[in-house]
Amino acid sequence: MHDILLGFPIVLFVFTVFTDIAYLKTAEMQWSNFSAWLIVGALVFGGVIGVWALVRLALDWRGPARRDSAVYVGALALAWVVGLVNAFKHSQDAWSSVGAFGLTLSILSALLALAAGWFAYSTPTVREIAR
Known about the structure:
Layout lengths: L1 H25 L2 H31 L6 H25 L3 H4 L2 H23 L1 H4 L4
């Protein structure tokens, strides 16, 4: 279940970059709304996964997977915090919500979510978090 839910913030944060670029190219305000909705969805799923990962990290704190799990939780938490700042930026008026700073936040949150996903799926000790 964890693996399935982890895919949602990754995809939603990545698609936020695409909708921000579409807004910057067309100036159609609906693209800014799409970005805000995608960010909120990523934050909701990221919060659920973050709580799940924190509980598992607490249970495995004395085990050998502690460092890998802590890096995974840190990357996930950082992606969530950057996404939250991005949500506040995108909640502004559409003309000022997606600019250089908004697009940078979207790219950064997408990269952090991708890094957390890569770390979760490629590290055998972190894959145990899902179980």
